Automatic annotation (TrEMBL):
One of its GO terms (biological process) is pentose catabolic process. It comes from the Archaea. It catalyses: alpha-D-ribose 1,5-bisphosphate = D-ribulose 1,5-bisphosphate. This is Ribose 1,5-bisphosphate isomerase.
Amino acid sequence: MTDGPPLAEAVDDTADDIATMEIRGAATIARAAADAVAAQARATDADDPEAFRSSMRAAGRRLYDTRPTAVSLPNALRYTLGRMEGDDVDTLRDAVLAAATAFTDRLDRAQRDLGRVGANRLRDGDTVMTHCHSTDALACVEAAVEQGKSISAIVKETRPRNQGHITAAELRELGVDVTLVVDSAARRYLDEADHVVVGADSIAADGGVVNKIGTSGLAVNARERGVPIMVAAQTIKLHPDTLTGHTVEIEMRDETEVIADADRADIGEITVENPAFDVTPPRYVDAIVTESGQFPPESIVTLMRELFGESADRPWEEPGTAGATPE
């Protein structure tokens, strides 16, 4: 529980579920946070504007502290609490509820809208190369197929967890002709690709793309080969707190994904590192496709500010403390 104003039961329950990863995935976390904020706005018995604001900030802090590195969570709070304006409790409550509804409605439409934007970059007969598994990237191919375009795909298997196998299966369900290749063969097969289409874990203010390890190397090779690289990402993946992608902490995953215990014993004492993500500098990205349209990487900060305010804006913090400690 959080000290301060009483919190709605839905806020505590949602915070616990996010913290324990009962609720996971960018869109699911964002929706749950927006719904919890709305529940707090309805439940609070604050009888003056400042008490209402304090109550909403307490709910925001409770939610934010669960998984502050999950970029969609603070974005949901920025969107809903950042639009909390008014001179009386009823007006403030209505503003929060309207913002929460607008945010969840946007989530409902986001992937399909994004897919239509991305499909406009694909032509009939194109071959795309994919990396890892991204439902946003797949949405672009699906929309192109729905438009009657014939699309083929070269799918990187994406070790060590082989998420490319999931991508291959889902593309086949769409009727796409799929060629699966090992990661180290990507440069060879780029000569047969018209586009590289990838997703993103998060996108920094400078347009740097944090995504599954191997994305950066693929982007460098694609640029050298003259193959455009399109990043498909819903706006909840935008990361206002990061000036560049290199300021994002990269998760190191368990070494057993890379090497079995028996093999490790045979090899001897070695260090095994298994980074989950890497950072693709914006100069290697041709377009970032979102539900709001497509943008060159250097322009993505304008969209961030429009949706979520300045990087220092933390409407869940008490006045005078917002933005004091960006992650």
